[in-house]
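Internal tracking record. Fields below are filled automatically when a chain is submitted to the structure queue. Please do not edit lines marked as system-generated. If the sequence contains nonstandard residues, flag them in the REMARKS field before resubmitting.
Queue: standard
Priority: normal
Entity type: single polypeptide chain
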Amino acid sequence: MSPIGDDASALPDEEILRAQAYGLLAGLLSRAPDADALTALAAIEGDDSVLGAAYAALGAAAREATPRGVAEEFDALFIGVGGGELTPFGSYYRTGFLHEKPLADLRGDMARLGIERAEGIAESEDHIAALCEMMAGLITGAFDAPADLDEQRAFFGRHVEPWAPRFFADLEGSPTARFYRAVGTLGRRFMDVEGQAFALAV
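SYSTEM-GENERATED OUTPUT FOLLOWS
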């Protein structure tokens, strides 16, 4: 899965910004940022909006972080010995178990939309990073032409909105999270913005 499609350059600026937000979250939740990534994140300034303040907090967190510290934090939160503090999978959040009906439903929509599982990825497709990447790809046309708003809303409503806000709130409130607390805040606020925007666009 790749969040960048051939038609992305023709998108309105606000759609590119949405895709970039999903792509940023996907990257931060699939692996710990290295030194170069932290340097890039540290340059984020944000603005006075609610979402802009979350971006500013992420930039500040990156300026205080070290690659080793963030890697250790990522491991404790998401990997660990026998599992991390959080289990970032849709099936788990929605049913209490992995590989349940929400994953089967997601795979059905992926097949319909032409989204293929990337090779070499151990995690199931309902991992939060994968879903963020899929949303980015639907916006930019990574899997075909950019999906229209109804298709994006349907995918978000079926596979993201039912659990991702809770996951990001849990990440934001985790006693283990330091750098990733800012990621949780950004994710939670971005999910709020997306949900409100889809609701208003009906």
